[in-house]
From TrEMBL:
This is Serine hydrolase domain-containing protein. It comes from Flavobacterium ginsengisoli. InterPro entries: AmpC-like, Beta-lactam-related, Beta-lactam/transpept-like, Beta-lactam_class-A_AS. Residues 30-328 form the Beta-lactamase-related domain. Gene3D superfamilies: DD-peptidase/beta-lactamase superfamily.
Length: 437
């Protein structure tokens, strides 16, 4: 997969909210105006409370070459946020007794390592040990070419297991690709048909569907990465992600979908309880999203240079969806700003970033190992952006906070390269030393 370069920038505003659990729309407008003026973000947001939209905004271009602006109805590829839909479809199939969570997958995929041990439930909560399919050599330069299901199963089957099934959790798109095929084999229908029949038509979603080649005429948008200027990205072929990341939607459709999901309009309350049961940070197609003393859920996605997130706070009946087709400024910071606004929490939005020197970054790239547990972190560089790869499984973008100090904004993990050939990795307040070799 291609990794894109983001310029640094300098600008700052402070958000201070005076109303509790009520949006100050003017403050959010000022944030999006600043993002637009500084050319840091292109995308849309929708915030809904009790099923009613209380805020929306769209900035940037759907098609830069033809000067077509984004609007509230512009449709975006949502990437892995698709997995919430797929999880709901699988749990619905379980309710109908077409499949079961403890059913092993060997009858579907006998060539996959440990298939006789891996259950459908393991796929749902990423406890299968099946290696990430996008790590395959076939996708080293992206996935713009179509792949047959036979080709995809062959690619997934060639990897050894990353860990014993159900012993831990680690994110892998392979899990949800396989769940897609299980659904199709079980119903003898395509994923697109099942999505239409079980979610889109019942909920009357107007702008949500299984994606294909991007069509500006159909009010879709291209995605862009920034390299001195916005550059149009290539298009991934949707035969590769399928139910792991192939849905197209709008923020308002997404907030409506997740509201209905939590209202029991798609799956039962018992199934929803299983979906939202968090183990080792993973639910079934969803993750926990704590915010101060509030408890929400979220999934985020990325495909090409599109990015998305969908979050819901059940007690407050608050839904927030953010989609982007080009971003320098991280969408999680926008989510935090919106939540801080709504829950009356002070929050400073700082657009001033530390600019690392490329030579300094090159010095800290390499492979680091922890001598006690033998875990490995590979630090790589792509166009002045630093990435961490844990045990050759999960790739995370690291944002610079100061010289030789970086942070993974989604996980909150910190990386300190101050000591020569040493990495101090901090997670959940615990520090672990890794040594370069």
């Amino acid at each position: 997969m291609k990794i894109k370069f983001c310029l640094v920038f300098a600008f700052a505003i402070t958000v201070s909210i005076v109303q509790s659990q009520k949006l100050n729309n003017a403050k959010l407008d000022s944030l999006f105006k600043a993002l637009n003026d500084k050319n840091l973000f292109m995308g849309s947001i929708s915030i809904s409370k009790n099923g009613n939209q209380i805020y929306s905004n769209s900035i940037g271009k759907a098609d830069i070459a033809n000067n077509i602006s984004l609007s509230a109805n512009t449709k975006f590829r949502i990437g892995s946020t698709t997995k919430i839909f797929t999880s709901a479809l699988v749990l619905k199939a379980v309710e109908l007794k077409k499949i079961s969570l403890d059913q092993t997958i060997n009858s579907f995929f006998p060539t996959i390592v440990n298939s006789q041990k891996i259950t459908i439930g393991n796929l749902l909560n990423h406890r299968s040990g099946i290696h990430e399919l996008l790590a395959a050599d076939e996708f080293a330069n992206g996935y713009t070419e179509a792949k047959s299901q036979e080709e995809m199963i062959s690619i997934i089957s060639k990897f050894p297991s990353d860990f014993e099934p159900d012993s831990k959790a680690d994110y892998s798109n392979s899990n949800y690709y396989l769940l897609t095929l299980i659904l199709e084999k079980t119903y003898k229908k395509t994923y697109s048909e099942l999505l239409q029949e079980q979610i889109i038509k019942p909920l009357k979603l107007k702008n949500t569907y299984f994606g294909g080649k991007i069509s500006i005429q159909n009010n879709e948008c291209y995605s862009y990465y920034f390299s001195d200027k916005w550059e149009k990205d290539s298009e991934g072929d949707m035969s590769v992600p399928l139910g792991a990341g192939a849905i197209v939607s709008t923020p308002s459709d997404l907030t409506f979908f997740i509201e209905k999901l939590f209202q029991g309009k798609i799956i039962s309350s018992e199934s929803l309880k299983m979906m939202t049961q968090i183990q080792d940070k993973y639910g079934m197609g969803i993750f926990a999203l704590p915010f101060y003393n509030k408890n929400g859920f979220v999934h985020r996605g990325q495909i090409d240079s599109f990015s998305s997130l969908l979050s819901y706070f059940p007690n407050e009946k608050l839904a927030i969806a953010i989609v982007t087709n080009g971003a320098i400024y991280d969408k999680k910071k926008i989510l935090i700003a919106a939540l801080s606004n709504y829950f009356n929490k002070p929050y400073t939005i700082n657009f001033e970033a530390y600019e690392p020197v490329k030579e300094d970054l090159e010095m800290i790239t390499g492979i680091y190992k922890n001598h006690e547990n033998q875990e490995v972190i590979t630090i790589s560089l792509n166009n002045k952006r630093l990435y961490a790869n844990f045990n050759n499984q999960s790739l995370f973008l690291l944002e610079p906070t100061s010289k030789n100090k970086f942070e993974n904004i989604w996980e909150g993990n910190k990386f300190d390269f101050q000591l020569k050939n040493e990495l101090i990795f901090e997670a959940n307040g615990k520090q672990i030393k890794f040594y370069k070799f």
